[in-house]
Amino acid sequence: MHRKWWTLTVVCTATFMLLLDITIVNVALPKIASDLHASFSDIQWVIDAYALTLASVLLTAGSLADLVGRRLVFSCGLALFSLTSLLCGLAPSALFLILARAGQGIGGAIMFSTSLALLAQEFHGRDRGTAFGVWGATIAASAAVGPLLGGVLTEGLGWASIFYINVPIGIAAAVVTRLKVRESRNPEGTRLDWVGTVTFTGALFLLVFAVIRSNAEGWGSTLIVSLLAASAVLLCVFVASQFRQDDAMFDVSLFRKPTFGGGAIVAFTLSASMFAMFLYLTLYLQTILGLSPLQTGLRFLPTTVVAFFVSAAAGKLSARAPVRLLLSGGLALVAIGLLLMRGLGAGSGWTALLPGFIVAGAGVGMVNPPLASTAIGVVPPQRSGMASGINSTFRQVGTATGIAVLGAIFESSIASGLGPKLAGTPISGHTAQIAHAVAGGGTPGLLAAVPPAERVRASEAIHGAFASAMNDILLVGAVVALVGSALALVLVRARDFVSYGAAEPAAAAAAG
Fold it and tell me: CA 465, CA 462: separation in Å to the nearest integer?
């Protein structure tokens, strides 16, 4: 087999593995929370610790790969991801799992930041469109297989097995990378931007931590205001440092082409709207509808199967159709899908979500392949690692921020909905604590602790408040996706792809 196909195989395997660990964990979260006695905040951090470190390290890893070698950095990422996956499976507590997940995120960042750069060095012209289509289909496949595999493993072997499965796959991929993937680097690279690394990582961490804690502490509290202020200061220092350095980790000049910035916005809004929503949809299916992890995975199949097939078609179509229409249309479908999921009530079944699942899945599949071309199709080849890292950073920041913001709205909405419905009951004075437990998937245990005389009323109140909160965050997610759709239509331009040979020849000709 030709070297470029080995490269595609390894990159897709690594991408599948690291993205699988987002969707596969969602299904297992209620079981993890029960076994490790985790709170709602802990549950958020199991997801966000991974997304946060993934986002924080992507830029550094991309720049480092350009400097010392993309194959070398990619291999190190595989090794670290495999090791920390083992530690996740061995976690005796929620805190240990959160820290191990953070380590997984670092390994994932190192792999993800170099993925598109490795593909770009081997594929050109129409072949690049095909490679990106396969890569996009891999992303969709990870979403398709994740919930189902998570359900099977969690029920059959326990939740730790969802992490152990990464170890042999990671080792095999590392061996193939060493033997079959070509090394490449930026010959003009000099040194790593440590100022940028520290300030960007710190700013992002403080921002997401503030959002996660905002509902418990209050947006006006001293802690939250201080965290946001410190994040803003670090971000300003980071931006200033990038303008003053020749070897900056974040080349601001890349954003001179609107297409590059448009692609980053699309990556952020897709993750903040749809991918962040999977956590709350999982909680709804398992804790309110009472589905098992396996049953939950099966319910997600319509979304992910549609995404897989649409993604494969979009990869081929991106070489002939304007990328901006694919990106904008895909996000519009995501928004429509999220809106179709609204209207949930206390007695709604999972089929109420089905039309939205299908439409949103088509939108996700339409966005992923052309999104890859906006990351590296408009930049010089020697900047491909950095460009890939920037785009992937926006994707992961979107996931982390989306989970945090939606979580704050979600818990607040549940508390507001429970107040009137529990008025006059013995538990009416504990609305905030009940809302926190419900948002964290603790509904079954909570109802068991309610006095029998009030259990039916409490159950109806909780189910109604949960459904109402889901409707609220689905609307927020739809608005985010629509904003991304509009900006993609305005910012992404076919002529930006011409300079470095991106695979959009038909679109460029159509643009004149």
Answer: 5
